[in-house]
Amino acid sequence: xxxxxxxxxxxxxxxxxxxxxxxxxxxxxxxxxxxxxxxxxxxxxxxxxxxxxxxxxxxxxxxxxxxxxxxxxxxxxxxxxxxxxxxxxxxxxxxxxxxxxxxxxxxxxxxxxxxxxxxxxxxxxxxxxxxxxxxxxxxxxxxxxxxxxxxxxxxxxxxxxxxxxxxxxxxxxxxxxxxxxxxxxxxxxxxxxxxxxxxxxxxxxxxxxxxxxxxxxxxxxxxxxxxxxxxxxxxxxxxxxxxxxxxxxxxxxxxxxxxxxxxxxxxxxxxxxxxxxxxxxxxxxxxxxxxxxxxx
Length: 296
Known about the structure:
It is a single chain. This protein has about 300 residues and is of the alpha/beta class. The chain folds into 2 domains: about 120 residues, Response regulator (Rossmann fold, 3-Layer(aba) Sandwich); about 140 residues, no CATH class. Helices cover about 60% and strands about 10% of the residues. The chain contains 12 helices and 5 strands. Strands 2-1-3-4-5 form a 5-stranded parallel sheet, with helices on both faces. Helix 7 crosses helix 8, helix 7 packs across helix 9 and helix 9 crosses helix 10. GO terms for molecular function: DNA binding. This is DNA-binding domain-containing protein. Keywords: DNA-binding, Phosphoprotein.
């Protein structure tokens, strides 16, 4: 499943750099480019790309206004904003219009690859879900269709998407140990983390020594993934404190003081990768939410 892009930027050098990165990193194909918002609207509505990379500030019609017009005319793809501006009010407006990620100017290859890989993964998952829904719709009229309880994987993936970690390596480990807990939920209380890490490790390793080694790797991957979720929510809270995802997930999955501290660290430009996080609380809340969604 190849992801298609349209790049809208008045800087021709920037357009070429982004196109080269997309093609060289095999992140999809660039279906078209445009030098301003008005031109971009026609190209995007015609080509219907999966992802639009669009400059925030352009002469004539800026990126925010272009996005508003595209949405009003039925375009449902994803947007990534390109800009060197740091004005929080304008960034907040962009998030309100549906922007999920920013790529900062001057263009940095590693940042572009990281951002596009994450959005690419989310878009592929959304398209996969759409295909499933379209396939299921064909069977709505069949009276013999068998209703079943959704799987843990089907329920948890949209939550991981909202938390901004569906593309993280540790998300697979999170799903694996949630499947384990759900399967053994009759046994009582939430299992110790060590038991959960071992359950995820046993899925790919056989010998005792391999399981022990992989358990430590699982723990580190999950820790990084939970930290990524914390950073994602703190980033949203910094630009839009009333964002529905921030209001719902931040106090539910994390302690309030941890969220505030993370926002302070990011606002002061410190390293957001360091710090402590309550992994057990995160997994327990996620497990409870998955159970509730499976029942409903």
